[in-house]
Amino acid sequence: MPQTASVRALNPFLTLTRFPLDDTAVRAPDHRWPGRTLPVFWVALLPARAYVRRVLDITRSPGAMPRQPVFNVPGVVTALAAAMAVIHLVRTYVLSEGADLEILALFSFVPGRYDAEAALALPGGIGADIWTFVTYALLHANWIHLGVNLIWMLAFATPVARRFGPARFLAFFAVTAAVGAFAHLITHRDAMVPMIGASAAIAGLMAAAVRFAFAPGGSLSGRRGPLPDHMPAQGLGEAFRDPRVLGFMGVWIAANLLFGVGVTMPGAEDGEVAWQAHLGGFFAGLLLFSFFDPVGRRLPREKTAA
């Protein structure tokens, strides 16, 4: 299908939808993304702030001076964040309006793509049916959306990447993004509104961090060990019996459900949040963590001084 035809076919549902705040994101052909849009979901995630402070100072130990957070971010996390920033930079300042619409059509997640008739309006064919389950997480609505997501990703991806290593980390990011997209698909069948944003995968990383952050010796255990990111994780049953884990999960899920019933912040009344995708990514991260975890229940070997 020629590029102009696919863009023209995409335009009708782009012009008739509202500007969402977070993962469900659509852009009208004659507007740039509104810079004042605020991703309320992440702003509302106040229970995680203590964790963020601790994890960004992850090298702290008794008698040791804390390092600057920027030097502690694993290379794979930095590379992923840079890729998202470069993609948004190119979309915003390099591509034409029509070319950017084509990018959205090819790489955002559109539930209606899986309807035989509606799929004719979208480019990419079978390949896009598959890759958009992940590629939507690399696209963002505006610089605020990207910036806030990157802050949260750096916080939660840092300990998970240290624990998993680059290959496992990227696979985990992709899987949780895909499960988030699937959760959005089954709750928005035939919807022709593109969904973009890394929040579902970030929710998965958050859930993964919860599995070991509260474990003995973890960063939020109260008795931080010398290698908090490599301490044996809690089993799933143990995690569900831990009141700290349950409290963290309860507040996080409640925040998403509030967005589900239409609660918004002042000035953000026209926004939408893909809360089903967030829940899908979170529970995928929580339940699938053990399949990616190389530490498991083994105690890490402590390095001895020479």
Automatic annotation (TrEMBL):
<keyword id="KW-0812">Transmembrane</keyword>
<dbReference type="InterPro" id="IPR022764">
    <property type="entry name" value="Peptidase_S54_rhomboid_dom"/>
</dbReference>
<keyword id="KW-0997">Cell inner membrane</keyword>
<feature type="transmembrane region" description="Helical">
    <location>
        <begin position="169"/>
        <end position="186"/>
    </location>
</feature>
<feature type="transmembrane region" description="Helical">
    <location>
        <begin position="130"/>
        <end position="157"/>
    </location>
</feature>
<feature type="domain" description="Peptidase S54 rhomboid">
    <location>
        <begin position="129"/>
        <end position="288"/>
    </location>
</feature>
<keyword id="KW-0472">Membrane</keyword>
<dbReference type="InterPro" id="IPR035952">
    <property type="entry name" value="Rhomboid-like_sf"/>
</dbReference>
<feature type="transmembrane region" description="Helical">
    <location>
        <begin position="273"/>
        <end position="292"/>
    </location>
</feature>
<feature type="transmembrane region" description="Helical">
    <location>
        <begin position="245"/>
        <end position="267"/>
    </location>
</feature>
<dbReference type="Pfam" id="PF01694">
    <property type="entry name" value="Rhomboid"/>
</dbReference>
<dbReference type="GO" id="GO:0004252">
    <property type="term" value="F:serine-type endopeptidase activity"/>
</dbReference>
<keyword id="KW-1003">Cell membrane</keyword>
<dbReference type="GO" id="GO:0016020">
    <property type="term" value="C:membrane"/>
</dbReference>
<feature type="transmembrane region" description="Helical">
    <location>
        <begin position="192"/>
        <end position="214"/>
    </location>
</feature>
<keyword id="KW-1133">Transmembrane helix</keyword>
<feature type="transmembrane region" description="Helical">
    <location>
        <begin position="70"/>
        <end position="90"/>
    </location>
</feature>
<protein>
    <submittedName>
        <fullName>Rhomboid-like protein</fullName>
    </submittedName>
</protein>
